[in-house]
């Protein structure tokens, strides 16, 4: 029985993950073999139950994909490119984007323009900058818009720099990386990051909210 | 029925995640209410099946927890401290540790000593350094041991620096962060990272193996 359950569990998992490919009839047929006493109504309810339990599980978990900046000659099918992830999730965001900058260069002007566009469409952008970032440069590339909020780290004795390289999208997806917003970070260095998915990434926004309350940052615009 | 299934799915999920607290009798009792036709044998098998399917699911997914370096006055219960994660997973590693270094200072000597200890116990350590890291300093803190392999990025026109800040433990857990191995990275900056869990993090070791084959790095010892 145990072996049979192992096989069935894998089939059930394939069904839940790729319903379109696997098909409900096939899985019901398989379930029926192991549970001959169950009627079709019970079987349908058990499938519904497992689907719901999987959703509950998935909601609690932060899942992750690998992200990398590596030279073009290195092909890694299992990592996503930093620039691709940034573009995709900025594009897809509907409500809020929180992004940090330690080193920011002209090279990411197109990303900033995309953020400008999102702000003009009503998305709230919170851009947290390290203390050494040139304010004038930032003000020259960010369009004046009440939705685009820029904060800069203030000098302090209890911390040094905002060195984090993150971008949080709609409080549901978060890129956590070593990549700065520069040519090196996006193209020329070897950088590793991860894009996280799940309600749990909201904690990152909470962290920055707490730091705002504690006056770690001053608002620039 | 649908509402009943929702509640049952959450109970089932609590049971699977926290079996010790919830108890098998309680969940069987709940299942029995929704599926009165099922005998105890079927119910037990359905629970076993769902547990197995959850394991299959979990194996496919990389799950993640948030990691941060933030000033002590910021309490974040939902993020783990960078230094704590490094110590815990270095300690727990049994086979391999891959770690990258862009900026490394005296401050992390205790972590290097812990790596020395693991190497002496048979754990293979692969330490990948950026090209600007001082070899003599590294050689002065790493104990000579055939298990402790040190690689340094070579100059090239196709890439700039090894800027990634990662540590991969037994190819099952990976810290991906903005934190350098320095006082600022561990204590004094604002840094964000994530510790990833799952078979999928093996791709990071694969990436570095490919770069080794391509002679991106030279072996120092």
TrEMBL record, chains A, B:
Pfam families: PLDc_2. PROSITE patterns: PLD. GO terms for biological process: cardiolipin biosynthetic process. GO terms for molecular function: phosphatidyltransferase activity. InterPro entries: PLD-like_dom, PLipase_D/transphosphatidylase. Residues 158-185 form the PLD phosphodiesterase domain. It comes from the Bacteria. PANTHER family: CARDIOLIPIN SYNTHASE (PTHR21248), PHOSPHOLIPASE D (PTHR21248:SF22). This is PLD phosphodiesterase domain-containing protein. It comes from Bacillus spizizenii (strain ATCC 23059 / NRRL B-14472 / W23).
């Amino acid at each position: 029985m145990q072996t049979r359950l192992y096989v069935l569990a894998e089939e059930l998992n394939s069904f839940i993950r790729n319903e379109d490919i696997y098909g409900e009839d096939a899985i019901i047929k398989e379930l029926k073999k192991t549970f001959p006493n169950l009627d079709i109504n019970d079987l349908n309810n058990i499938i519904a139950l497992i689907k719901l339990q999987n959703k509950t599980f998935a909601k609690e978990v932060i899942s992750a994909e690998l992200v990398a900046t590596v030279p073009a000659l290195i092909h890694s099918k299992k990592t996503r490119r930093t620039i691709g992830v940034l573009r995709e999730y900025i594009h897809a965001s509907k409500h809020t984007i929180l992004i940090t900058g330690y080193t920011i260069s002209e090279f990411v002007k197109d990303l900033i323009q995309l953020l400008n566009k999102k702000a003009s469409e009503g998305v709230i952008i919170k851009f947290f900058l390290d203390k050494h970032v040139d304010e004038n440069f930032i003000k020259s590339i960010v369009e004046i818009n009440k939705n685009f909020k820029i904060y800069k780290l203030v000098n302090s004795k209890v911390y040094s720099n905002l060195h984090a390289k993150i971008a949080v999208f709609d409080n549901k997806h978060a890129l956590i990386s070593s990549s700065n917003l520069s040519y090196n970070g996006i193209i020329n260095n070897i950088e590793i990051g991860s894009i996280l998915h799940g309600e749990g990434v909201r904690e990152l926004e909470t962290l920055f909210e707490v730091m705002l309350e504690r006056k770690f940052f001053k608002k620039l615009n």
